[in-house]
Structure formats: structure tokens, C-alpha cells
Design goal:
The protein is α/β, with parallel strands linked by helices. It has 12 helices and 9 strands. It is globular. It starts with a helix and ends in a 24-residue tail after the last strand. The relative contact order is 0.12. Bound molecules: ligand C2E and calcium ion (CA) (3 copies).
Length: about 280
């Protein structure tokens, strides 16, 4: 309240200086957090809906601000982008995720999120490939998840990165499919291995006829393009059953397993409780 009052009295310039100061302080906090390894990774199972077996895990970043207390990535990833520390953060998270992946059976894959800004960086593909080499992780264990905003920030740079990654044998998933402006044209302009239907479509698709039709169409579109499809945000048994019936390949959501500090393989439940 004191700060707001001061801004009102002193006007625009001091408010801007306050922002710069806040940014600088935050940047130094963030650097300390990087140095003290306060960033960790949680893992959420990706389940094959035909076999009900876990086929991979998505790595989800966490900032442990105090023991057991985590700040969500929706808050700190955009800030890390703003202060230019996404490359450092991503490398730290990626190394942790690779180490964890080495503990899993060889057919289990790692899905790793890459910020749009970083996807347009020509150093990304070579550094991912060299870290995997160094750790002894085969390229076919990795899937990179990107959102379409990366694809029109700098289409040529994105295309370069995606080609390098795919040539090395790394798979590419188009995340949050359907939420952007041009999801369909991105399907024509770029080559993907997987589409991830955004949670917002899964949330209500059992109760909303239009959403139901959209989800059906995305699944059949993916099928006809020869691209795998994942549904995220599955929380209820009736969502799961319908997605299985529609031929959705992979499922992810609290019903199948929550993100956890160690990979927990999905347990096939014998009795499905309908709601
Ligand atoms: P996303 O890639 O769409 O990841 C899925 C988000 O949905 C995760 O949130 C996950 O915890 C949450 N989720 C999964 N199943 C359910 C469910 O059944 N119900 C509900 N309510 N939520 C579910 P989270 O971990 O908070 O991550 C949010 C976003 O932050 C991610 O969305 C991703 O865009 C970004 N993110 C996370 N980790 C990284 C990272 O290492 N690098 C980058 N660049 N972005 C990351
Ligand atoms: Ca993702
Ligand atoms: Ca997603
Ligand atoms: Ca999402």
C-alpha cells in the first residue's frame, strides 16, 4: 500500500525504476535458486489407453521455495523468460530429467517442455543432443513438447531446431493443441509425431456436445495424418472411457497419476468407478 501510494504521488518514472529494481532483485533471487539447485522436476505418467500401461512421463518444473513448498511453473517460467535465464534453467531441469530417465525401463520415454523463446535458439538442438550423449541416453527416449506460439515467433529458426531434433531421432509433440490461433495451419507447415489435446477440451467434453465433437475430430484428424494423440487433464472415469472408445492413443491426468518427485508408474485398476 505504501508503494502504491508513492507511485501515485511521484508518477510514472519512479514506478518504472521500482520495476527495474524489482526485476534486478528477482533476477538475483533466481540466480541464487539456480545455484542452490532449488529447481526440481516432477514426473507425471503418460498412459497407453489400449494397454493401460505407463509408456512415458512428462517432466514438470517446480521451484521449491521452502521445504515441501512449490511455486508452480505458470508463475516462474514466464519470469525466467523475461529475465533471460530460460537457457540456464532449462539445462538444469533437462539434466535432472535425463538422470531420472536413466532409472526407468528402456522403453519408457521422457517428455520435456521447451519454451517458445528457446525453440528459436539455434544452440538448443545441439546442446540437447550433446547432453543426451554425455548421459548415455538414446535419442528415441526423448519427446520435446512445444506450443504453437514458438512456431510463428520465428518460423525459420523453429523449423531449423525441429529438423535437427527429428533428424537425431527425437520426437516432437505439439502441446495445448486447439488453444492457439492457427493450430491447423501449423499441422501443414511443420512435422510432428504427436498432438496433445489441451485440458480445456477434456474438462467438459462429456457434458458439452460441441467439445465432444471437437475432441472426436482432433482424434480422427491425428489418425488420418498418422500422428499420435494424447489427451491431458483426465480426471474422471467417464472421460477416460470415452477417450478410449474414441481411439485416443495416450492419456494423462490426475485420474491416471499426479505429478510426483519420483516417477510412479500407473497402476491398472480392476474396478472403474463411474461418476
Ligand atoms: P502443460 O505442458 O500443459 O502441462 C500440463 C499441466 O497440467 C501441468 O501443470 C500438470 O500438472 C497439469 N495437469 C495434469 N493433469 C491434470 C489434471 O488431471 N487436472 C489438472 N487440474 N491439472 C493437470 P503444471 O505442472 O503446473 O505446469 C503448467 C505449465 O507450465 C505446463 O503446462 C507447461 O506449459 C509449463 N511447464 C512446466 N514445466 C516446464 C518446463 O520445464 N519448461 C517449460 N518451458 N515449461 C514448463
Ligand atoms: Ca506439456
Ligand atoms: Ca499440455
Ligand atoms: Ca495445457
Amino acid at each position: 500500500a505504501k508503494k502504491a501510494g508513492r507511485e501515485k504521488v511521484m508518477g510514472f518514472i519512479p514506478a518504472m525504476q521500482d520495476n527495474l529494481l524489482a526485476t534486478a532483485l528477482f533476477r538475483s533471487d533466481f540466480k541464487k535458486a539456480l545455484a542452490s539447485k532449488a529447481f526440481t522436476v516432477h514426473y507425471q505418467p503418460l498412459v497407453d489407453l489400449r494397454t493401460s500401461k505407463t509408456v512415458g512421463f512428462e517432466a514438470l518444473a517446480r521451484w521449491e521455495v521452502s521445504p515441501g513448498k512449490f511455486t508452480p511453473p505458470s508463475l516462474f517460467i514466464p519470469l525466467a523468460e523475461d529475465i533471460g535465464l530460460i537457457p540456464e534453467l532449462t539445462e538444469q531441469l533437462f539434466r535432472l530429467a535425463c538422470l531420472e530417465t536413466l532409472n526407468w525401463p528402456a522403453q519408457i520415454t521422457l517428455s520435456f517442455n521447451i519454451s517458445p523463446i528457446l525453440l528459436c535458439n539455434k544452440l538448443l538442438a545441439p546442446s540437447i543432443i550433446s547432453i543426451m550423449d554425455e548421459m548415455g541416453l538414446a535419442a528415441d527416449r526423448l519427446e520435446i513438447e512445444i506450443t504453437e506460439s514458438a512456431l510463428f515467433q520465428d518460423a525459420n529458426a523453429a523449423r531449423y531446431t525441429l529438423k535437427k531434433l527429428r533428424d537425431a531421432g527425437i520426437k516432437i509433440a505439439l502441446d495445448d493443441f486447439g488453444t492457439g490461433y492457427s493450430s491447423l495451419s501449423q499441422l501443414c507447415n511443420f512435422q510432428f509425431d504427436k498432438l496433445k489435446i489441451d485440458k480445456s477440451f477434456i474438462d467438459t467434453f462429456r457434458d458439452n456436445e460441441k467439445q465432444d465433437k471437437i475432441v472426436r475430430s482432433i482424434i480422427s484428424l491425428a489418425g488420418s495424418l498418422g500422428v499420435k494423440v494424447t489427451a491431458e487433464g483426465i480426471e474422471y472415469a467417464n472421460q477416460l472411457e470415452l477417450l478410449k472408445d474414441l481411439g485416443c492413443d495416450i492419456g494423462q491426468g490426475y485420474l491416471l497419476g499426479r505429478p510426483a518427485a519420483k516417477a510412479i508408474f500407473h497402476q491398472v485398476t480392476s474396478s472403474i468407478i463411474y461418476n
